[in-house]
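Please check this.
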Amino acid sequence: IDKALTNISVQYFQDAAGFVAGQVFPMVPVQKQSDRYFVYKKEDWFRDDAAERAPGTESAGGDYDIDNTPTYFCRKYAFHKDVVEEDRANADDPLTPDEDAVQFVTDKILLNRENNWARTFFKEGVWEHDYEGADAAAEGKVVYWDDYANSTPIEDVTKMATEQSEVTGKRPNVLVLGRKAYDALKNHPDFLDRVKYTQKGVVTTDLIAQMFDVEKVLVANAIQNTAPKGQAAKMSFILGNNVLLCYTTNAPKIKTATAGYTFVWTGLMGSNAFGGRINRFSMPQLGIGTERIECEMAYDMKVVAADMGTFIKNAVKPE
């Protein structure tokens, strides 16, 4: 009788570092599921209203407006896996049904959060500045970055950063790259030529950040299967071939502009700093010894300052 090996098993799961949803915009811990926040009107702070003052006259004066209508609402997202008595009784080493269930439901929630992040921030029509990859440069178009003979990614991003800083007073500091966009940059002659005399001679995220004059470059490596259960897997990168250039603070702050925030409901009983929690409870109606392992996360992703983001759809040519 064949016996299961105890020193190996094969399991696919994603490295949490490949998900960018928790790395781009600051997380704002909130005690209530919904509430308001304040937005100072930009136009009042950048207008030159000061004037020369004649002797014996009043100085020029003015005021600024505050918008108190923006709100957040942290929706709960959840997924569970039931562990039955038979699973534990029949589990051969190295199978660990309870541990596997925790990892399974956690991965599902992180995958769902990454998709929600993409649907909120990583698409056209969200940011004030939109571009699209094309075979030739034009208004609102950039040459596909994998067209190595004609594309100019360094000039493209430099122009976008200047365009953005001209209307916000802040230069973008974060660049989010879909995996294929990153691969195109790593192999682009403009980058290879600039790094060939460096110590490693290899294009890295740190070197790309230096060339684009941003603090951080994030590569979206998360993948997903879009085929229904029972059908052949259809795998793809969640964030596709797209790119986001934005300005964001490294932590939530008052009186500070940032492209986006993720409000996380830490006031929910048992929640961690990401608004998530693992629940474990008995399900006797499904059989004696059955337990449900459930992962739940409550958050709301909000575009706070649309003029602090620039989106490029299909920076590399779609296949």
Notes: The helical segments are 42-45, 85-90, 97-121, 153-168, 179-186, 189-195, 205-212. Residues 1-9 have pLDDT under 50 and may be disordered.
